[in-house]
Amino acid sequence: MSVTKNALSRYMILDELLSDRHHKYSMSDLHEKCNEKLHDAGLPEVTKRCIEKDINSLEFAPFYAEIDKQTVDGKTRYCYADKHFSIFRKELKEEERLLLGEFLNTLGQFEGLAHFDWIEGFRLGLHVEERPKIISFSNNPYLLGSNLLGTLFDNIANKVVIRLTYHTFADETERAILFHPYLLKQYHDRWFLFGAADSDKKVLTFALDRIDKVEPLPEKKYVECPEDLSERFEDIVGVTLFEDRNVEHIVFWVSDVSANYVKTKPIHESQRVYKNEKEDDLRQRYPSLEGGVFFSIDCIPNYELIRELCSYGKELVVLSPHSIQNDIYTMIEGMYKKYMNIRTLNS
Length: 347
Prior knowledge:
- By secondary structure, the protein is of the alpha+beta class.
- Among the domains are: 5-80, Winged helix-like DNA-binding domain superfamily/Winged helix DNA-binding domain (Arc Repressor Mutant, subunit A, Orthogonal Bundle); 160-228, SH3 type barrels; 248-341, no CATH class.
- Helices cover 35% and strands 21% of the residues.
- It has helices spanning 5-18, 27-40, 48-58, 94-108, 117-125, 149-157, 259-264, 276-285, 303-310, 322-346; strands at 25-26, 67-72, 75-80, 161-166, 175-187, 190-197, 203-207, 211-217, 248-254, 272-273, 293-299, 316-320.
- The strands form three sheets. The protein has a five-stranded antiparallel β-sheet. A four-stranded antiparallel β-sheet has the order 10-11-9-12.
- Helix 4 runs antiparallel to helix 5.
């Protein structure tokens, strides 16, 4: 059987789709995705009939691919019967094997991904010896939902829609949503899942300790993220974005005890130090604040920001805006009242 360059390109694309263990594509899906990849490669698009012939060709010499055809939701869906089969095989070069082995050793040490069972199997398959831990990541082994990390990572990487069952802190009632997962992010030893609801494609955030169950739905069409999610974190501390709030210019003072810590570990990437005339002006306005350093940040207020500012106790004082001052004052006042009640009871 003679194979043209264009046909070989299509076979390579179809081979990738048919060996995808996370999806079972219909003929329409194969046709659409194949044409997308052909277009990206600058090659001519083809008809669905052409794809049908290509699938048929893969089942005979020289490929002899065994293709499983299952009916799901009234549509015939295609995949290799052997999930490890491929019409193209490539052996890793020795340097590639060693580099991949080092990567697996490092990734395997990431305690937050301890449920990636395939890492160990892959490492053993490459005959990579286990090395002493040389890097350790922050992790809370008792965090609820951490066992879902591997599953969610797998679904994001392979662009699989999921049925996500969850509950809120205020209500233990289980709720379900069809969800397109995009990103896992860690903040303060907790993991958060970002993705879009299938109903309106609005980007939502779920803490993993609020997720009860994840069910992959490979037959559902996955929708790519409509935005650059990294931009969501540019104007906030933590993970909570209030889209109806504006960026605030926040000025605060930090004592000599904590100033160097704040300098070397900025509260937000926009953090700046006040110097010269601006610093002199602030010292005249706030004579009770001796020594220390004046800082500013520009971000959208949220709970994580308030908690971060409060974490320095008396060593950090917010000077403006009044809204954030009031949030912190209310929090401190509430703490004071509770401690006074406890001290009264204990006296």
